Amino acid sequence: MLLNYLYEKYDERSAFCAAADIDLSGLDELEAARLVPMASYVLNVDLSVKSFVAEHQEVRKYQFYLRGQLEWLVQIAGKKISTENAARHYFETQYGLAIDEFLASELGDAIVQIYPRSEWKLSDYSDTWADFLNGTYGLCTRTGLPREIFLKHIYIRFVEFVTLANRPNKIKPELLKLLSEAVVELDKVESDFAPHEVAQSSRQRCIINIKKDYSL
User: Fold this and answer.
1) What are the DSSP calls for 41-55, one per residue?
2) Cα–Cα distance, 66 to 7 (Å, whole number)
């Protein structure tokens, strides 16, 4: 059920502010200054309640923020970041560090041997930053932070690169092993997605379907 999913993984706006130790107007100011992501889910609800005592109706808007993004607020506050340029620079720095960490890892090294960095075709930083601010990565990653955003990008691209050229009954064992490892790592950073989203999501395309098709 959608509400169960949202309340399990997200905080509604007031709860998010309480966890961040800021008031609602403080979050408004951070969003207006383009320092933090907007809500990933917005629910416009027409409530109709009936009980023994009385009936009640109201229209309300609920905004849900990924709990993992509380860490972003902590980080920019700790670095006293107060402008969008500074926030974006910090984001890009963290994203770049994630690339370096990936390249230095055993799995990353194995991946770039067959899928070189020149082929990654990652989105322009301006697009990634814009998607970060509008709440997209609070929807499709587990923390919404730069490191996971990069890992989601690279693992999805690698899975698509391998499966496009290698049918399940034709793939070599060593490449199948590498594909399996990439899917496992993608699963760690990829959001579960809301129930109504799963079938259309990259989780379905690059994890669920690949596990089934390639018997992982």
Assistant:
1) EEEEEEEEEE-SS-E
2) 10
Helix (H, G, I), strand (E, B) or coil at 78: helix
Q: Round to whole Å and give the CA distance between 175 and 161.
A: 12
Quote the CA–CA distance of 100 and 97 in Å, as a whole number.
5
Q: Which residue, chain included where needed, has tokens 């309340």?
A: 7
Angle at which helices 125-133 and 84-104 cross, to 10°: 110
Copy the structure tokens of residue 91.
Answer: 């984001």
Please tell me the predicted confidence (pLDDT) of residue 185: 98
* Residues 15-47 pLDDT 10s: 999 999 999 999 999 999 999 999 999 999 887
- Answering whether pTM is above 0.85, one says yes
**CB-CB neighbours of 199 under 10 Å:** 11
- Tokens coding 78: 């700790």
Query: What is the rounded CA–CA span in Å between residue 7 and residue 28?
Result: 21
Give the ranges where the chain is alpha helix by DSSP (H).
2-9, 13-20, 24-32, 70-78, 84-104, 106-114, 125-133, 136-140, 146-165, 173-189, 202-203, 209-213
Domain boundaries, the chain: 2-69, 82-213
pLDDT tens digits, residue range 172-197?
999 999 999 999 999 999 999 999 99
Tell me: pLDDT of 48 over 90: no
Residue 123 has a pLDDT of: 78
User: In terms of Cα–Cα distance, which of 190, 164, 193, 192 is closest to 179?
Assistant: 164
Q: How is residue 173 written in tokens? A: 């064992």
